[in-house]
Amino acid sequence: MYKLVVTPLAGNLSQIPTKFPNIIGSFNPTLSEHGLSLLISVLKTNHKKLNIRNINKAARVSNILLDVSGLNKTILHNYPILGRSWKEIDQIVLSHSHYDHVGALDEVLEKIWEAEGYKRNVPVYIHPYGLCERFHKSGSQIKFKDFLGKPRDTLLPFLKEKIVRKLPDFKPRHKECLILEKKSVILFENDHVSIQTTGEINIPDPLKKHKQDFKSLKNNNGILDEDKELDDQSIIITMKKRKKTVLLLGCCHAGLVPTIIHSERMTNLPIHSIIGGMHLIRTKEDDIKTICKQLIQRKQLKYLYPMHCTGSNFFHHIKNQCEKLGLEYPKCFNDLPNLSNICFDL
After folding, report:
1. Any idea where the Metallo-beta-lactamase domain is (predicted)?
2. What is the pLDDT of residue 303?
């Protein structure tokens, strides 16, 4: 029989504080940081129910990384605790190129090559916009519209004055592994499960505030454009026999509800569980309430495992709304800790 296991390798929490359905905990010490990495494993096993003793004995059919932690590179410490070899990682997907999701990419690739004994071409999927320079306008001294279409060097005086700040660049040493792709990519598929990227999500998010950030593309002669964070993508896992999906999020800059709608349109199937960063930590309470209402309307949605940039307000609001309506689902876990294996029957 086949199982799907999703394991956080990097996140905000290092230990499991409470029990929750479908989670097999690890009590080994891990390092936490403001960053994210999820290991997606398809297992083949004779055990009907996985536990901390038999999960590592199961045959790994596919292993995919979504993101590779932040600047502290905690994945390098946490992954070996699983007792797995780096060479078991087949593919890497970068949800976007912000520093807290790509921090250890080069080191992870080098660990894989070291374990293999040779330089294997590990595919790393990223949207083309992931390679752009990013700038954030932090003051009101300049007008955003005055710089659109101008050379990026126009910002240099304002960088010195810290009116504009440059976000950390994504400059991987091993660019030969990068696969630049805007569209959805099927990463793994068999009779039981399909794993694919969402690709670029073009559904507008009415709750997303205009941030007035710039991006600059080298192949566009360094001309400044609005940064709509179109490189944001997620992963959809289709459980074929159950006719339901699991949605894995990096940071969800495209918006939680637009990402859900995009996933539903791609698969024509309801979402069973959502795992990862939902980018709601600075969202207004009224907007969080609106999002919670839309989630509760999806009767097939059973479990929410927020992490990273979600914030605790979301957990409290959806819990309160469910209690007021007398609903058992969706159940929500308040921030998913490292090395907590979330298991699904396929």
Report:
1. 81-141
2. 95
Q: What is the CB neighbour count within 10 angstroms for residue 19?
A: 8
267, HSE (Cβ side, Cα atoms, 13 Å): 29
**Strand extents, DSSP E, the chain:** 2-10, 23-24, 37-44, 59-66, 91-93, 124-126, 133-137, 164-166, 178-180, 186-189, 193-197, 213-216, 224-226, 235-239, 244-249, 271-277, 303-307, 331-332, 341-345
Q: Which CATH class is domain 2-345?
A: alpha beta
Nearest to 35 by CA among 2, 65, 80: 65
Q: Of 217, 209, 70, 202, which is closest to residue 134 (Cα–Cα)?
A: 217
**Which pLDDT score, from 0 to 100, does residue 173 have?**
93
Low-confidence ranges of the chain (pLDDT < 70): 14-22, 25-27, 209-212, 218-220
| Strand duo 331-332 + 23-24: pairing | unpaired
Write the CA distances from 11 to 76, 227, 315, 316, 340, integer angstroms.
13, 26, 17, 20, 11
Gyration radius from the chain CA atoms: 20
Q: Determine the pLDDT at residue 211.
A: 63
**Residue among 30, 23, 104 at smallest CA distance from 65:** 104
Q: At residue 88, what are phi and psi to the nearest 5 degrees?
A: -75, -15
pLDDT, residue 27, reads 65
Tell me the whole-structure pTM to 2 decimals: 0.94
Residue that has been written with the tokens 């400044």 in this structure: 224
Distance CA 46, CA 2 (A): 9
**Whole-number Å distance between alpha carbons of 126 and 130:** 6
